[in-house]
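Exercise 7.
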Amino acid sequence: MTEYILFHGKKIAYQQSGSGNNLVLLHGFMERKEIWNSFQAELSENYKVTLIDLPGHGESECVAEEHTMVLQSLAIKQVLDELNILECVMIGHSMGGYVTLHFAENYGSMLKGFGLFHSHALADSEEAKQNRLRAIEIVRKNRTVFISNFIPDLFAPENRERLKDEINLLQEGVSEMSAEAIIASQLGMRSRDSKVDVLAGSKVPVLFIFGKQDSRTSLDKILPQTVLPTYSVIHILDVGHMGYLEAYLETLEAVRSFTSVCFKEEN
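Solution. The predicted structure, written as tokens, is:
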């Protein structure tokens, strides 16, 4: 069941199930907490699993003209405070990984481990920043066209037909997302800074899940980041940017195993 807190006077939606040690799963840009429903159903047998709609996504409202990663991590912290979660494993897909890194920087003592699921610690390059401005202009002109084109491109070409129903559901899930919310997130990602130092300073396990065919995160830039933490767990799959659908069983087991490692002292 979805519940809400107020953050900056706006609703932030979350859902929670299970019992035991806490696992927090964050979705990415133009996604919603429901992308994790299958993961939650499986993992809540052993963990208390919390899913959160990031600002402007799903049932959460826009809270600012720019949803910086710092602002979004503050929203996550407020949800966890409301739920009296003092420590957890946090895993973020895509933009959710950027938020996770900012959370780790500011509230690292709350994390038993964290994961970057098709995500990374680098800031946008100048080219990427320009691409985000171009995307914003497209959204302003025709939000619907942007949504319909954006999501299929995240999948490896050979998986688009196999997962066409899932792609349609993703598109339907964000069909009501406002242009304001899309732009706020694009601006927030554009302005984020590098968090390579967070990886280098991490004393807790860090999970990396990458796709060989991921057009959003190239392996040559990301692989060097995997050696920075004291303890890294690395999964490289032959998928695009949407491994939680393209390789569901493999990524589910990766998250399950990683969470178990992080809580090994308690288990």
